[in-house]
Amino acid sequence: MNGCCAVSLALIHYPVYNKAGDVIASAVSNLDLHDISRAAKTYGIEDFFVVTPLVDQQALVKRIAAHWTAGAGARYNPDRKEALQVIRLATSLEDVVATVEARGEGRPILVVTDARPDEKNIGFNRCSEILQTGRPVVILFGTAWGLSRELIQSADYILEPIFGPTPYNHLPVRSAVAVVLDRFFGR
Amino acid sequence: MNGCCAVSLALIHYPVYNKAGDVIASAVSNLDLHDISRAAKTYGIEDFFVVTPLVDQQALVKRIAAHWTAGAGARYNPDRKEALQVIRLATSLEDVVATVEARGEGRPILVVTDARPDEKNIGFNRCSEILQTGRPVVILFGTAWGLSRELIQSADYILEPIFGPTPYNHLPVRSAVAVVLDRFFGR
Fold this sequence. Notes:
2 copies of one chain form a homodimer.
Chain A: E1 7-12, E2 16-17, E3 23-24, H1 30-42, E4 48-51, H2 55-69, H3 72-76, H4 78-84, E5 87-90, H5 93-105, E6 109-113, E7 121-122, H6 124-131, E8 137-142, H7 149-154, E9 157-159, H8 173-185
Parallel strand pairs in A: 1-4, 1-8, 4-5, 6-8, 6-9, 7-9
Antiparallel strand pairs in A: 2-3
Helix pairs in contact in A: 1-4, 1-8
């Protein structure tokens, strides 16, 4: 629990762009699962949905999560076990929405993140207010070259990109998740 | 340049602890180099020292950096080229200090980060003031199970750990760097 609100994360592997701008299903990265789980656990997020329609990638997610939550990894590193227990496998965004809605707190608000500025962007302060309403919220992060425009435009809110003092904004998704969670839930 | 100050990062592979609490030299992780370079570039840091006394690991750092800054990777992904250009190889912390001092702005202030609270911790606000003085500062991050106590206690300042609303604080160093830089330099 993050104290104030029912916030989940979703890491989307489809529909995202490849380097050429085609919509693809990206491969799951082992490091994404570890790093994002650890950030989630640090900031009180209990549900990290890993979203992929590819059956072989779903099997990979299950295998990695099982190794660290029930297998040899769990005995080797209990802190990692605690973190990777937040992983939830989902086949699509609709699957995520249905899972959250089935908890009986209503349909979740979808907030997408993207490195490109959008005219519909909301700021971190406004988004923080939305997180405080108590309604379930899913924050979506893309992989590869980013979430498809169609998915972005279909969400309820588009969070402003993360910027430092430079125009360079190519943070890894692993780092972007940590920064977003820290801005919302850091002490 | 980060606008206000001459801040560098150093990722320390020796002296750090292994799981058993022995002081070791850890292996360099390819992902650490990529993710920390990208965070550095985002937040305006131009010098990211990768510190290892191991000759084979130094060769690995050089090979990775060269691939992305001058080799096939540079042509494949110019954004990545720009990021990995911040990597500086160093053999020891003393080497980092000497390199920064040779620039003629004085001996750098050393700020260490650590996941364990310490009675000498300074907060992010106090540290931010130190960054604004214009003196060169190197922020040190550990690998493996963390920086040796001796190194931590020898630094000028020990930054407070990153916490969310939970007691869990096992962020990957890749994520910790991004969060620390965002707290200091995020817009």
